[in-house]
Amino acid sequence: MSTDRTIDTASATGWLREFARIIGENAQYLTDLDAAVGDADHGINMDRGMKAVIAALDDAAPADLPALFKKVGMTLVSSVGGASGPLYGTLFLRMAPAFGADAADPAEFAKALRAGVDGVVARGRAEAGDKTMFDALAPALDAFDGALAAGKDLASALTDASAAAEKGRDGTESMVARKGRASYLGQRSVGHIDPGATSSAMLIAAAATAFGASG
Ligand code: ADP
Ligand code: MG
Questions:
Q1: Which has the closest alpha carbon to 123: 75, 168, 91?
Q2: What pTM was computed for the model?
Q3: Given this model, what pLDDT does residue 150 score?
Q4: At what angle do helices 134-149 and 154-171 cross, to 10 degrees?
Q5: What tens digit of pLDDT does each residue of 122-147 get?
Q6: CA quadruple 123, 129, 42, 93: dihedral positive or negative?
Q7: 13, 118, 129, 204 - which has most CB atoms within 10 Å?
Q8: Where are the chain's structural domains?
Q9: Burial tier of 102 (Cβ tally within 10 Å: 0-12, 13-18, 19+)
């Protein structure tokens, strides 16, 4: 087994930049998904938020992982008006204290991500099958943990996590929305992929790309 790459502020910043890039490229698509089940702003919200994050990171590079994730979370909470701002903001804010001042190993990164997703649940009360971002994130975390436990390195564990997130995202199509704006549609939300699950799958795909690039 190869030695896993450590996760430091530079590589984590690379992850966030890659996420911002994917969101920017897919902003219209995410907004179109939200037009079907919500108010047609998810791509606009996420793109505004991630552009603000990149501007904040360009402005002053955080010293360590807790400072980085705190800044990202605060920026999202303050720059995004929709439900996704506080939810993604909470995810990153809850990741922050899970790190120490030093670079993290894959298991610590997995723990931090789980703390972040636990924060999303604490805030939004979503359960599995409610047709939200949780339906992409929860299977991704389980796949990530499983892959690491099986001895896989960071890159291949994140590839597994990304595949699981995409499967979870696709699984939201047949679900009835029970949280957020889409829940107002009830049964009519069936047949549409959840926008937040789609952006969350992009978050995990960005991690696989950023941390797996040369791992
Ligand atoms: P808004 O619904 O305020 O317009 P967005 O369109 O930016 O915000 O985000 C919508 C996404 O937020 C949904 O597709 C869903 O994945 C996610 N979401 C909404 N409410 C919740 C919740 N309570 N828990 C988890 N995720 C949620
Ligand atoms: Mg919306």
A1: 91
A2: 0.97
A3: 98
A4: 150
A5: 999 999 999 999 999 999 999 999 99
A6: positive
A7: 204
A8: 7-209
A9: exposed
* Most informative mutation of 87, 91, 118, 130 for ligand 1 (most atoms within 8 A of CB): 87
Segment holding 196, helix H or strand E = helix 195-212
> Does the beta carbon of 45 sit less than 6 angstroms from any atom of ligand 1?
yes
What would the pLDDT profile of 144-169 be if each residue is shown by its tens digit? 999 999 999 999 999 999 999 999 99
* Long-range pairs for 30-35: beta carbons < 8 A, 24 or more residues apart: 30/195, 30/198, 30/199, 31/195, 33/192, 33/193, 33/194, 33/195, 33/198, 34/195
Sequence-distant (≥ 6) Cβ neighbours of residue 188 within 8 angstroms: none
**What 8-state DSSP symbol labels residue 172?**
G
CB under 8 Å to 213, separation ≥6 — which residues? none
The CATH code of domain 7-209 reads: 1.25.40.340
- Atom 13 of ligand 1 has which residue's CA nearest to it? 196
Token pair for residue 203?
């978050």
Q: d(Cα 168, Cα 143) in Å, to the nearest integer?
A: 11
DSSP state of 104: B
Other beta carbons within 10 Å of 128? 13
Q: Which residue stretches of the chain have pLDDT < 50?
A: 1-2, 215
* Binding site membership of 124 for ligand 1 (Cβ less than 6 Å): yes
Instruction: Return the pLDDT at 179.
Output: 97
User: In 3D, which of 9, 4, 7, 17 has the Cα closest to residue 111?
Assistant: 7
